Amino acid sequence: MTTTVAAYAAPSAKAPLERTTIERRTVGEHDVLIDIQYAGICHSDIHQAREGWGEAIFPMVPGHEIAGVVSEVGSGVTKFKVGDRVGVGCMVDSCRECEPCRSGREQHCVRGNVQTYNGVGKDGRPTYGGYSQKIVVDEAFTLRIPDGISLDVAAPLLCAGITTYSPLKHWGAGPGKKVAVVGLGGLGHMGVKIAHALGAEVTVLSQSLRKKDDGLKLGADHYYATSDPKTFEEPAGTFDVVLSTVSAPLDFGAYLGLLKTGGALVNVGAPEEPISLNLFSLIGGNKTLAGSMIGGIAETQEMLDFCAEHGLGAEIELIEASQVNEAYERVLNSDVRYRFVIDAATI
What we know:
Number of helices: 10
Distance between the termini: 22 Å
């Protein structure tokens, strides 16, 4: 039988989130029921709740940075038991048959992965996310949170952590490499921590020097304000990787100019507006403009284990569920250091 649980939902596009109830499906053979303890607030939640990325499904329960404890398992579950500490990220299923799925890149499922919220499950019903008390997820899309990370700071790793870890690993961030992280927000601060832990020399490129002390404490070696024209002159041609974590359109030609020959500008932020680019900024220097979208399930588990090994968690501000609408406005005003996390006990 289904389970009725409390949640916070946007009833329509751009409407304030409000407390409501939703139905969670019966625990199936390979499902786990998770008592959610913490849910991070990602900028993606705001984009989708306000239809910034296109038409969405309402009512919408956002949240794809979920940490909690298993309270029930299906009869065929082998990976988890009651009491295990687990997480759920941006997707809860995929076709599992296409080449990307078979190679552990479920995020790029040819048929489209099933999003944790604002998606449609294989049962044809809308998916609801982590701003709720409980969630039912197939064990194949459930992650184990190592004991070395507390659940509150682990929750944002399920999006912000993997979104930055995956491209940094793919583009070879490590000893002897210079990495610049554009933006020191929810994604950017994890990018700095992870790039530093991987052994790279890390530079933050932020609008101002307001967060410089924070950036250096998080692991940055250098910090520049992008509002200063010298930022695009002095370090020009020095970076192996520039990781852009911001959701605003940038002057990509200027940022490509910061790369070494053969370097890569990798975008994980998703602006609502299209961008323009003079291709000569790519052709000169054999440079790459790339994108990256979270990671597969195996890589996400690898990231969690890496973070536990290196003592990494998100820098968070814990809030009650009733503060979610205020938190959204503060995210838009860049007034958070560095990730809001909802205490699910307050839902």
